[in-house]
Specification:
- Strand 6 and strand 7 form a beta hairpin.
- The strands form 2 sheets. The protein has an 8-stranded antiparallel β-barrel.
- Helix content is 8%, strand content 64%.
- It has 1 helix and 10 strands.
- 27% of the residues are buried.
- The protein is elongated and about 65 Å long.
- By secondary structure, it is mainly beta.
Amino acid sequence: MKKIILFTLLATSLFAQAKVYMGLGYNLYNESYSYSASALPDTSDNALRLKFGYGIRESYAVEFALNYIEHASYNETPEAGKAKYGFNIALMKAFDLGIYVNPFIKIGFGAGVIDTSGLSTQSLAYGSFDAGTGFFIPINDFSDFEIAYEYKNLSYEKQDELDSTIQNASHVNSLYFGYNIRF
């Protein structure tokens, strides 16, 4: 019984410092396709992210992010109005090194959909594996700036075209700039 009480008190004290946070940011997004029968071009796009998380800035956090990438290209030419939407979940480990910034690493996965109007389907789903590193620049106890590099390995769903089945994959490198508010 004493062990249960001790564990409960320890867990309560660990999570007493954890906060919910919300962030908004901008990505410089570069996608390179690794295979394609139609030689898809590399794309550089603008991306916006809204994220929600729970954790401690100097320790662990779980983060949920919604992404919007404008002018996404899955065929030969990017077109205005096409977009890619994504949802990602990541586990983040930050380090308190006693300096003004808090470096972090994160790893996660995600899923999303891209508008492919003009092809045989109107949209394609994709899955992703995500990894990143960066740092928080605390402003005060309730807000911080975030700068990060992120890598994503995307795998799109298969498409049936004429006599073949095509499944594309891509590698995404992005630089993220954001602002977080902690509650």
